[in-house]
Amino acid sequence: MASPAPKIVLDGVTKSFGPISVLDGVNLSIDPGESLAIIGQSGSGKSVTLKCILGLIQPDAGSIRVDGEEIIGQRGKELERLRAKFGMLFQGSALFDSLPIWRNVTFALTQGHHRDAARMRMIAEENLERVGLDAKILDLRPSELSGGMQKRVALARAIAPRPEIIFFDEPTTGLDPIRADVINDLIVSLVEDLGVTALTITHDMASARKIAHRVAMLYQGKIIWRGPRDRLYDSGNPYVDQFVQGRADGPIS
Ligand SMILES: Nc1ncnc2c1ncn2[C@@H]1O[C@H](COP(=O)(O)OP(=O)(O)OP(=O)(O)O)[C@@H](O)[C@H]1O
């Protein structure tokens, strides 16, 4: 059987800031319904890659296609239409503390306008339930919740518009290992249940191994290794080995 057309394809993506080359020909392909994690050192360009896909940074060269449509160079309504396929879980959760939880969860649906409160509360309740949170928190403010609960609310917000693709930016940062694992489990079940395509950037190897079908490592502006998650600790690549084992000595200085 022919494999499905990829959902996202990066082809020869380059980006420099002044004299500093950050991305130096990134090639990557993600299938529909696949969960892929990009790992790499701090400053290796994971966030820049994500911002290029989101259309927030214009690469210098290369191509980024989503469902076969080029993102690079798109503006205005066209970019908005493509971006409507994306959901995003931000690193710091990025909830609005001036708004109650239910308005946070439905923010992308209302674009911040006050409309159809009863229906929005129902949608918020249903999405909170999917991430294991009770309707009792609907009227609380984000600051009244623990970091782990805030992350779940942020997850509920990311899935509420039922995006086709979700980006997870360091989803476990700032959580203790047990709460991090709860978030990993939730991401796995959401990706499965909703059939979304997921791209995660992380330094958390336990998280990458749990939530991704495949892992890709970014080093010196290129994807130097990609493989199934169960090969992460058995990649045969000295750069990947050093990184996943967190060793100071090795080819990465
Ligand atoms: N807007 C910008 N202007 C100038 N330099 C930038 C800009 N954005 C990113 N950089 C540089 O690009 C490099 C890669 O940054 P990036 O944030 O993508 O790394 P990262 O792999 O996501 O790191 P971390 O894991 O620490 O978040 C860094 O050297 C950073 O300083």
Automatic annotation (TrEMBL):
Assigned keywords, A-Z: ATP-binding, Nucleotide-binding, Transport
Matching Gene3D superfamilies: P-loop containing nucleotide triphosphate hydrolases
Highest rank taxon of the organism: Bacteria
Every ABC transporter domain range: 8-245
Molecular function GO terms recorded: ATP binding; ATP hydrolysis activity
Keyword NAD: no
Protein name: ABC transporter ATP-binding protein
